[in-house]
UniProtKB/TrEMBL annotation:
Transmembrane segments: none annotated. GO terms for biological process: methylation. It comes from Paludibacterium paludis. GO terms for molecular function: S-adenosylmethionine-dependent methyltransferase activity. Keywords: Methyltransferase, S-adenosyl-L-methionine, Transferase. It comes from the Bacteria. Gene3D superfamilies: Vaccinia Virus protein VP39 (3.40.50.150). This is Methyltransferase. Residues 49-143 form the Methyltransferase type domain.
């Protein structure tokens, strides 16, 4: 099974770093706040797995909120170098490994979190299988992915009329759950499209109880402050899911 690691491509990494440094995009105003809201109210004393931990922002925030320990996994050496440089905490452990390989971990967890990473993973079912074994009974899983209506078409762009106005967001081949070769900073970024049905039913089939599903969009107040966010009110950019590992599974 292939393990995609675009974050170690120097052109991709430079583009991604520039985007994050601006601090005014969808991640900051929408994705991160909603993801945190779906987590347990208190992270105190929890053992946490951060899948696709990147530069470790969530790991450090979780420890600041009282988490007992955080293990962050990521395939990118570039991202982990950033994470380690910014972290001085023996209770945070960054490990260079793919999400697909999390079953190799010896530890078990109270909470597993993934921010915009699972749509880069080919075998979603195998990840859920590993999580069903690595989460303690009653443990929480919270994740975000690009919304399936965004991943359905590889081009991932609005259609425009002759005046340059966005007319609609195309959705096609929605039931074709396969890879999409996309462009994000560089060509050849592979995302795996799967339906909302597959995301939810996969959880149910692996012994999870769905607790929340959200398709959040920017608020009108956010759009007034940043007009460039307006198109994202016309279709949800992200899918958010929280679930609990049922006891006895």
């Amino acid at each position: 099974m292939s393990r995609q690691n675009v974050y170690d491509d120097p052109r991709f990494f430079a583009g991604y770093q520039t985007l994050r440094q601006k601090g005014a995009g969808l991640n900051e105003c929408l994705e991160q706040p909603v993801l945190r809201r779906l987590m347990p109210d208190s992270l105190a004393n929890l053992s946490i797995l951060d899948m696709g931990c990147g530069s470790g922002d969530f790991a450090r925030a979780a420890r600041a909120e009282g988490a007992a320990r955080v293990i962050g996994i990521d395939l990118s050496g570039n991202m982990l170098a950033e994470a380690r440089a910014r972290t001085d905490d023996p209770a945070i452990d960054y490990r260079e490994m793919a999400i697909e390989d999390l079953g190799q971990l010896d530890e078990c967890f109270d909470l597993a979190v993934s921010s915009l990473a699972l749509h880069y993973v080919d075998d979603y079912a195998s990840v859920l299988d590993a999580l069903a074994r690595k989460l303690n009974e009653g443990g929480h899983l919270v994740f975000s992915v690009e919304h399936p209506i965004c991943t359905a078409v590889a081009r991932q762009r609005w259609h425009f009329d002759e005046d340059g106005q966005a007319t609609h967001w195309p959705v096609d081949n929605y039931r074709d759950e396969s890879s999409r070769d996309t462009h994000w900073f560089i060509d050849g970024v592979v995302k795996y499209h799967r339906s909302l049905e597959t995301y939810v039913n996969g959880l149910l089939e692996h012994g999870f109880r769905l607790t929340r599903l959200e398709e959040a969009v920017p608020t009108l107040e956010q759009v007034r402050a940043t007009p460039a966010l307006w198109p994202h009110r016309r279709r949800p950019p992200f899918l958010f899911i929280s679930a609990v590992r049922e006891t006895g599974q």
